[in-house]
TrEMBL record:
Residue span(s) of domain ABC transporter: 6-257
Annotated SUPFAM superfamilies: P-loop containing nucleoside triphosphate hydrolases
Keyword Iron: no
Origin organism lineage: Bacteria, Pseudomonadati, Pseudomonadota, Alphaproteobacteria, Hyphomicrobiales
Name of the protein described by the UniProt record: ABC transporter ATP-binding protein
Entry-linked InterPro entries: AAA+_ATPase, ABC_AA/LPS_Transport, ABC_transporter-like_ATP-bd, BCA_ABC_TP_C, P-loop_NTPase
Source organism per UniProt: Mycoplana ramosa
Length: 263
């Protein structure tokens, strides 16, 4: 059997008395899209923070492409091939779209794009080549964003901010890209466009995989190969969305939350 691209084993983290992620096992194969779903506060973002090195696990391991990366600092995990976006935007509003993507490239340039930005005479050729690549990345994620590449990111509407964040994450040439609620703030039309964008990006990068936290069932029902459900920090289901959605434990997790909201 092929070894998974990302292999999460028995991953746990405890904050004082709260076990936010508990014994989670998750495999992501090459060229696969897996969605993580679950009620608010279930531990989905914390799981991303563990995989990307923002938190150190209390227990368990994370292996990327056969290399164990458990406990590595976030910048090293990014350089090893895991890129991510966050629930709240981390774009630099006062920089152009192009510069936001250039910053995402720093793990893949030898002289360092930041250094080149600070020292304009030096590393000019590398900067120009990187700027061209950044432009192409923006075009590949979203052709309609490309003509706006020299405008400030702060002026972008929410859906385009999400697209730009994906372009920036791709700039590090990751093996795995993790998106935290990419459709939040999007209407149905934008969500459908996002599904098409992710599919196009995947088809242009054989072997790259997506791990996506989502609440929008429209996206969850159409995009992923597989869906993993987290509830109270534990994975309670993993499989085809059509099967997972019918499982009593999954329905209970969602209905329980709705009942609590209406109480
Ligand atoms: N740094 C931290 N310190 C203490 N508790 C934390 C910390 N980070 C997360 N938690 C707790 O861990 C639990 C899981 O939170 P998390 O943000 O991972 O949930 P989530 O599934 O991503 O929720 P949502 O869908 O609302 O974003 C919550 O109870 C949260 O309060």
């Amino acid at each position: 059997m092929n070894r998974p691209l990302l292999d999460v084993r028995d991953l746990s983290i405890r904050f004082g008395g709260l076990v936010a992620v508990a014994d989670v096992n998750l495999k992501l194969n090459a060229s696969e899209i897996v969605c993580i779903i679950g009620p608010n506060g279930a531990g989905k973002s914390t799981l991303f923070n563990l995989i990307s090195g923002i938190y150190r696990p209390t227990q368990g391991s994370v292996t990327l492409d056969g290399q164990e990366i458990t406990g590595w600092p976030a910048h090293r995990i990014a350089a090893a091939g895991i890129a991510r976006t966050f629930q709240s935007s981390r774009l630099f509003n006062d920089l152009t779209l192009l510069d936001n993507v250039l910053i995402g490239m720093h793990t893949r340039t030898s002289a360092g794009v930041l250094q080149a930005l600070l020292l304009p005479g030096k590393a000019r050729a590398e900067l120009e080549a990187a700027a061209e690549r950044a432009g192409e990345l923006i075009r590949s994620v979203s052709p309609h964003l490309y003509p706006r590449r020299h405008t400030l990111a702060g002026a972008l509407p929410q859906a385009d901010r999400r697209r730009l964040e994906i372009a920036r994450a791709l700039a590090s040439e990751p093996k795995v890209i993790m998106l935290d609620e990419p459709s939040s703030g999007m209407d149905d039309r934008d969500t459908d466009a996002l599904v098409a964008d992710v599919r196009r990006v995947m088809s242009e990068r054989p072997g790259m995989s997506f791990l996506i936290i989502e609440h929008d069932m429209r996206l969850v029902a159409t995009l992923p190969n597989r869906v993993a459900v987290i509830d109270y920090g534990r994975k309670i289901a993993d499989g085809d969305f059509s099967e997972v959605r019918l499982m009593p434990r999954v329905q209970e997790a969602y209905l329980g939350q709705k009942a609590a909201q209406h109480a």
